[in-house]
Every structure is written in structure tokens, then in C-alpha cells.
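Justification of computing resources. Each target in the renewal requires a structure prediction run like the one illustrated here; the chain below, 642 residues long, is used simply to show the kind of job we budget for.
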Amino acid sequence: MGVKNNTHFSAMARNLYELISKKYNVQKGEFSRDALTSLGLTLSNNLKSISFDEGNKIVNVSRTLISISEEGYTVTNQELDELKELYDYFKFVDKDKQSKTSKLETLFRKLSMQSKDAIVNENEFDDFKEYMHIKREIESEFEDALENHLQKHNKSILFVVGNVGDGKSHILSYMMKKYPTTFADYKIKIHNDATETDSPVSTALETMKRILRPFSDGDIDNNNEDRLVVAINLGILTNLIEELKKDGGFSIIVEFLEKSQILSSRTISGEVNSRFKIISFTEQTNFQLVNGKVESVFYEEVINKIYSKSPENPFYSAYLEDLENGLNKLLHINYEYMLRKDFQRTIIYLLTRSEIEYKTIISARMLFNFFFDICMPRDVKSNYDSYLPYLLFKSANRSELLTLINTLDPMRNQTRKIDETSIELYHAPNTFKKISELLGDESETFYKIFQSFKDKQERFDNFINTYLRIKFLMDYENELFDNSLFEKYLEFYSIVQNESQAEALFELVNESFSKWHGDSGLEGYIIKNPGKGRVKVLVEIILTPLENFISGTGIGLQFDVNNEVYEIIIDYRTFEILSKLNKGYFLKEEDRQIAIKFDLFVSRIVNSAKVMNKNILLDLTTQNRYELKQFMNKITLSKGKV
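Resulting C-alpha cells:
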């Protein structure tokens, strides 16, 4: 039976070779295993006449022929059936299908920032851009300001404040299209880019001053109608406030902007001024915490626009139409992966974690480009790196967002479980078969990705990394991965968001404060002069917790030190470093740079004159301690115990 199956398989492989060679007019000489391999790679990689998946199936037939040449190998009935299916497929397939235009690809190219038809083009809104529009909370705030601020007050400014690329231009364009009559009837002017000048001899700030002139101290109470919307970045706003102060004629605007706290870490003040109003992108977050877990209506809506199985979804309709026309390129395979709910949940987790961990403002246009990047291969080469798991985690140079997600690659998450799995795979007689066992019922779904690894054990690192990425996308909460520190930060964030006191976080900061310059050996005393010197100055400092508050994706803490208030914003990366420090981790210079605000917080307090009343000098060589006291203008030094 074994010999018969092997002979039958070899004969069918020869027939496949002859069929494909004739159909695509590619001659590779007499039939052989190498000739069949060369044919599959030429058609898929070089000529692009067949898909990557089709090319790999041809190459896998050659791999089975190699196995047949080894003593004791018997072709299974399943392998015979698969070869028969492959032969029948190539017998009837349209040989020109790969050169046909893919409707899904045409739509996906609109997601790219590089496309001339990109959705991010703000100049006009066609039906497709209308479909892709995502309503956000700030849009409702804009509509409210339009109706209850700009329309009701003859002299009024709406400041739309944010950072580069967060969607200010988009919302202005959308609102002007949605309410053209309102903008026209009330003569509402728009200044969309506060970095531009209206004259070759003027700076951008001088242009802004001219635009704001009707709202200067001398003109603000005249009876003219002046309504203005100003979209401005925070950095430019800081410079503008200073420029207006120097001018001296805009004190009313300056007073409003400063009292609004727009430049601080706090929530915008409810300071009321009938003439001025601020809506801010900096206060917008794309996530919510529900029972300690991150959720995002915004990310879900964007995903549904592209990946929902709905007849109203043009992407899904294009995908189905392409399949009906025989098109099944790498983009279609990656699109199928993104139709999975488990992949979608993990993508939302990665996006929210990037937002929290790196304080990134992720706009709709960044998201559209992101989904283009993780579904559209760089080229049509046949390899594992053309599939979504690789494109997601190993495309750091394609965009800022993918650079951040690269740092969250599960292969960087070295846990005991991952080490055990790696060892198990490394020692498996057949790594490909072992992966199939680990993936269970899902092994067929990801079979295409692992085809290129089937006989290349030397690519083990790429093999295991691909498995980990797939497993992570299927279930990021799996015991293989350790996300406990991030979950702890979310727990603190949730406590503070609910207006409770995060006592354990205050304790963490207090303990980290005492260890930041090294361990003094004395409770309550901090080393003031870190470094290699023989004598250390120890300063007695007591941090008294006051209050905590949310600041964007960070947590603000206030302390009292000798009747003076100090404030520190703990973001996730700082929290990560402080947590490691309190488990014995030795700080590197790069850690201090990441936690630069905490470093400055420690330095400000330690170097304050108010904490200099009682110091200890510690001689590291002799371990002798000297108490340094200051009373009024008199300083005394005494040796002894503290």
C-alpha cells in the first residue's frame, strides 16, 4: 500500500508539473523535484502569475517528494487527496486572475496616508469619506459650541486645541461641510493652521495677532460682529500667550487662556467667559476602563468600518466580490485574519496600551494607515513576513504607531511559560507537526503562514516568534504572556478615575523616592549627592500624601513637604521603572531619562532650602555619621548616632 501511494503521488506530481508549465508557458526542463520547486517559486515570486499560497502548495509537493526518497516514508491518503485538489484547481483556474484589479486592494490603498485618494485628504468629503467618518465626543462639543457659543455671541472665539495630527483639520472640514449655512450666515471665520503666515514679511505669531485684533482690549467691547474658530497646537499656543503678553494689548484673552489651565496637566477649568471657549483634543482618550479592562468604542467603530461582515461595509463587499472572481491575494488572507473577533480584541488592546504606555494620541487617520500597513504586504514575495502577525510586530519603520507596537511584540515578553514552550519546540522531532498540535483546531487556519518553515529548521527563531505572535493575537490574556504590571497600572488608574485615593501608589512613589539616589541606610533620609564621592549628604524628608488626579493617560499625585506642595505625574513607563526599582532593580541612565519628570521631582525636593534644617554626613569608608544642623544663621556639626 505504501509503495503504491508513493508511486501514485510521484506520477500525479509529474502531471501537475506538466499542466502548470503548459498553462503558464514556463518551461523548467525535464520533471524533477527541483524543477517543480523552481516552477512554483518562479510563478509566485518572479512572474507574480500565481499567489504566494498557490506557490507554496506547489513547493510543498516537492517537499513530499523529498520525503518519499527517504527510506520508510509513506504518502498518506490525505496527501494524495490534497494533490488531486491542487491539480483540479490549476486545471480550471483563470491563469490571468492575479493581473486583474482587486477591488479590496483599491479600497485599502485609500487608507494609506501616501495615497492621493487617501481618506485623510481634508479638502472634500465624498460618499466613501462620509462612510469612513467616525463621530467622536469632541464633535458633539464642537456642535454645542457652534450653537450655544458662536451663534449666541457677536464677539466670540472657539479655540480648538490639540497636538499635531490629532484631527483638528478633519473636524473643521467636516463641520464646515455639515453646517455650511451656519458658517455663512454668522460669518464665522476659520484660522486652521496657526503655524502659517498670511504675508511673506510676517511671522506666524504676527499673523495670529492680526487675526485676534478684533478681540484686543481696545476693540473687544465694540459692537462689531466677529466670530472666529482657531485650530492651534499646544506648543504654538504657549508661544502665542507669551507674544500676547509682550504686546500688552490682549490681557483679556491672556487671562482667559491662563485660567483655563489648558497648558497644565489638569482638566480644563470651567472658567466662564461669554466671548471665549476652548475644546481640546488633549483631554480626549480613545479608551474606557470597564471592570479594570480597557475598552474602546472609537477603535471598535474604526474596526467595524473596515472589517464588519455587513453588506453596508464596502470593504467586505469588495472582499467577497474578489473571491467570486478567483482573486485571493495575501491582502485577502490578512483581511480574513482581521475578520476574527479574537484578533480584533487584541488589536484594540495593543492600541490602547500604546496610547497609555507611550502617551500617544491616535487619530482616525493614523488608524486607517495602521490597518493598511498590517494587511497590505510590502511586496508580493512569498514568505512568512507577508502575513499579518509579522507585519504587525516587525514593521517598526513603516509608521510611528507600528514602531510603538514593535515594543509590545510578545517575543519580548520572556516568561517561564514561553521558555518552556520554546524548549519543547526546539527539541520536537517535527517542529511543524508540533506547532499544529499546539494550535489544535486552528492549525489549518494558520497553515499558510508556517508553510515556508516546513523544512527549514534553521529558521527556528522566526518560527517560534511567529507562533507566539499568532497565539498572542488569538488570546493576549493567555498564561504564556505576562501583562500583570500593565493591569496593575490600570487598577490604579481606575481607582483615581473613580475619585478614590490610590494609597498603594503613594506608597510606591514614597519608597521609590527614598531609593532614587541609592539606599541611605536610614529610614526617612535621602541621599542628596549621588555619585562616586566618599562622603554622602543625607537629607531628612517626609512626603505627606495630599491628593491624586487623572492627567490624560497619567496619574497625578500631590505631596506636602514642609508645608510646600509638590506634584508629580506618574505615567505608565515611570510606574514600570518605579515598580522594578522596588524589587531590587539597579537604575540605568536611560531609565532616568524615561522617568525624567520623576528625576526632576526628586531633585526639586532634595535641593529645596526648606529641607536643609537637619542633614547627615555619611563617610562611606569609616561609616561614621555626622549630624549637620542649622538654626537661624548658625550651623553646627556633631559626630554620633542619629
